[in-house]
């Protein structure tokens, strides 16, 4: 799940990308309080990232054909899962917990699972 947080101030446009899942944008005074030093903006971004740490992603390569891929992870939460077979994004049955993702295909399959 991507989350976008906007901090609008009268300053040059700055975009801080912490990870593919967290984007913090700073734009010029369209709404909200005017002003805001670069230090204040940096502090706001740092506070946000401390309270909402970016999720680290992981890629699982299933090299041996299998109808069931069991993928352990250490995210401590249920990740989003994107699947690729032969370079194409595909759908399959996915069951996820805070420690494991299980992907089920109708036939033995190789490919990639990207967890975010």
Structure description:
It is a single chain. This protein has one helix spanning 38-51, and strands spanning 3-8, 14-19, 22-27, 58-72, 81-85, 88-90, 93-96, 100-115. Residues 4-24 and 26-33 have low confidence and may be disordered. It folds into two domains: 3-51, no CATH class; 58-115, no CATH class. The strands form two sheets. Strands 4, 5, 6, 7 and 8 form a five-stranded antiparallel beta sheet that branches. Strands 1-3-2 form a three-stranded mixed beta sheet, covered by helices on one side. The protein has one helix and eight strands; from the N terminus they run βββαβββββ. A hairpin with a 2-residue loop joins strand 2 and strand 3. It is mainly beta.
In short:
This protein has 116 residues and is mostly beta strands. The protein has 1 helix and 8 strands.
Topology:
Blueprint (H helix, E strand, L loop, with lengths): L2 E6 L5 E6 L2 E6 L10 H14 L6 E15 L8 E5 L2 E3 L2 E4 L3 E16 L1
Parallel strand pairs: 1-3
Antiparallel strand pairs: 2-3, 4-8, 5-6, 5-8, 7-8
